[in-house]
Design a protein that fits this description.
- The structure is a homodimer.
- The first copy, chain A, is globular.
- Chain A has helices spanning about 25-40, 70-75, 85-95, 150-155, 210-220, 230-235; strands spanning about 1-10, 45, 55-65, 100-105, 115-130, 140-145, 160-165, 180-190, 195-200, 250-260.
- In chain A, helix 1 (about 25-40) packs across helix 3 (about 85-95) and helix 4 (about 150-155) packs across helix 5.
- Helix content of chain A is about 25%, strand content about 30%.
- Chain A is α+β, with helices and mostly antiparallel strands and about 260 residues long.
């Protein structure tokens, strides 16, 4: 058995999220189906960042274990090499253009796309203008009310550091007692014309955390909430203490970091 | 009778171009249908820049003439005002989100979206990277071969000025003898990471001119054509002298200028 690492990008618009889900189109579903055509097997896929419906990725990472005939089919002719360029091309020919496999390689045996990741980064795109740009309607949250970028950055700074993000997360149903303490290493807005971009990095994110943080920053930028109140909202450890969450379609997973990759 | 000016943006992906065309979805078709629901009439639409299938716009301009009951319905309650904000909102409620009407107003009687325009500007987006970004698959031409931006700008500079663009245009079928002399006032590439943006402005463009110019610049950037040969290609007045045209989906109409607006 060997461990394979895939790097991929996708436009989330046409998917009901990453995770396989019977009867609906998902990234994992399309990927598993292409992998099965190539390897004759359907290995369990481990993903670095499970994205929700409508959320995009430019640098998602997936790992799986494979042996025997399936492994022979993807490594045949490249026994020494750890790059599996032929697998990447074969997958790209079998998936729709809303998924792009950017790399495929053999990884260390103990590599696990989720557990081995030491940091993730997301980007959120909001358009602050009277009208949306229809070209980017599936990629940007259109906010009509004038936003104050300085206030949004004043709010964002309070999220940096180790915090219990209970006020900014959806409680995991399957593990209600799980820790929601996360360490944010970067949280910053910048403007590119009418497009406001939020860049956030953390060791890990709990469910809907970026969208909740963005929703709160936008409420601050609009004047509905105060930036200096963010620490109190964090301390409340109550989801109702935070502003409404931002819609999914503005969000993109842009990086996953590993210590040894 | 009064003249109405509409400003609009659209994502061209779902349309078979701007111009109304029986049996296929077009921007003019959707717009005319929404206008008819509101005014009870189907006025002839004049457009500043007829865009092809897959081409986008952030600042398209349309004009039409309307009188009687139809005019009353859109101006009712705003007799003095030249802004027709209510018409813009009504249209936006009736069109899909891939069209956004950004302004509606009464214009001078002799205003004609096409004839009154003194300049148009287009943007072309090309992604120069090993892999496409699936988020922007319908908005960017993905070019894998390494492009030299300086060479592309050396080529672009030759297009500035008054030239006969016969080598860079599709000959108009209905007016085979029409002049293809156009004056380009700006033609420049710049890079934003892997995204290469081309900005071109002219008094007017002939059919497929921007895509032909972009296709030629990219051939130069790739090393297939020489920048200093562009004047000879222009002088040839032969479409086969130029490199293949760029695909439509990277193109956006971004501005239309009027002397008095």
């Amino acid at each position: 058995m060997r461990t394979v690492r895939l790097d991929l990008a996708y436009r989330g618009t046409g998917f009901r999220g990453f995770a396989a889900n019977e009867g609906v189109r998902t990234v994992a579903g399309d990927l598993a189906s292409a992998l099965e055509q190539i390897t004759g097997e359907a290995p369990a896929l481990v993903v670095a960042g499970r994205t929700d419906a409508g959320v995009h990725a430019t640098a998602q990472v997936v790992s799986f274990r494979i042996g025997g005939e399936g492994l022979r089919r993807i490594t045949d002719g490249t026994p020494q090499d750890t790059g599996l360029d032929r697998l990447a091309s074969s997958l790209n020919r079998r998936v729709n253009p809303d998924i792009a496999i950017t790399a495929a390689a053999l990884a260390d045996d103990d590599f696990d796309a989720r557990r081995s990741a030491t940091a993730r980064a997301y980007e959120y795109r909001a358009r602050n203008a009277a009208h949306p740009d229809p070209r980017f309607a599936d990629l940007e949250w259109h906010v009509r009310d004038r936003l104050d970028l300085d206030l949004m950055n004043a709010a964002a700074r309070h999220f940096v550091g180790e915090h219990d993000f209970r006020s900014f997360c959806r409680r995991p149903k399957d593990r209600p007692g799980a820790s929601l303490v996360r360490t944010v290493t970067r949280a910053q807005w910048h403007a590119d014309g009418a497009l406001l971009l939020f860049d956030i990095e953390a060791n890990a994110f709990c469910h809907q955390m970026v969208r909740a943080v963005v929703g709160h920053c936008v409420a601050v930028g609009r004047g509905d909430r105060s930036a200096k109140n963010v620490p109190a909202v964090l301390a409340a450890r109550d989801r109702h203490a935070a502003a409404p969450i931002a819609p999914p379609h503005g969000l993109t997973l842009v990086a996953v970091r590993y210590t040894d990759a």
